[in-house]
Amino acid sequence: MRLSEFSRPSRDFSRSVNKGGVLLVYALYIARFFTGISLLVGVILAYILCGSSVGIERIHLNWLVRLFWYDVAFIIGSAALFLACFMTQPPGSSGPGQLLFLLPIGIFVVWNIVLLVALVVGLRGFLAGRGPLPERFRALAE
After folding, report:
1. Mean residue pLDDT across the chain
2. Residue 112 and residue 30 in contact, taking contact as beta carbons nearer than 8 Å
3. What is the DSSP code (8-state) at residue 91?
4. Could you tell me if 22 and 126 are in contact, meaning their C-beta atoms sit under 8 angstroms apart?
5. 18 CB-near residues (< 8 Å, 6+ apart)
6. What is the predicted pLDDT for the residue at 5?
7. How many CB atoms sit inside 10 A of residue 24's CB?
8. Can you give the C-alpha Rg of the chain in angstroms?
9. Which residues of the chain have pLDDT under 70?
10. DSSP 127
């Protein structure tokens, strides 16, 4: 037997581990809506798997890492905006300034909807063997 015959199954095993790993990262990201820690575990796993993945798996893992940093930016931005609203209109005060609190809450809710849609579209694309986004939005994933 030649050495190449022994290396082929390990390559197939590695490929299936990467595919399962990407699916696990997607699952952890979706679980983020129920538990906060799963997103952190998902991005650590994505960084680990990124080193050994190629092709479609690599594209999806890079997209998931980018989504993590977008999520962090939106959470920090929403919290900063909420704090700014709190400083200008403390609780207990009355008036139309209390409506300012709807702005950071609305931004946070809209971002969560966009994130969920991006995860579902990315997961469907991965299962179909395509990139994480449709062709018209491909520039966002690169």
Report:
1. 81
2. no
3. T
4. yes
5. 49, 52, 53, 57
6. 43
7. 16
8. 20
9. 1-17, 91, 93, 95-97, 135-142
10. H
Phi first, then psi: give them for residue 93, nearest 5 degrees: -80, 155
Say how many CA atoms lie within 13 Å of 27 toward its Cβ. Answer: 7
Predicted TM-score (pTM) of this structure: 0.77
Q: Copy the structure tokens of residue 36.
A: 């906060």
Q: What's the start-to-end Cα distance of the chain, in Å?
A: 43
CB distance 8 to 22 below 8 Å = no
C-alpha–C-alpha distance, residues 52 and 58, integer Å: 8
- State how far the Cα of 46 lies from the Cα of 24, in Å rounded to an integer: 9
For the chain, the residue count is 142
Q: Let me know: does 63 contact 26? Beta carbons within 8 Å.
A: no
Contact yes or no for 78/99 (Cβ under 8 A): no
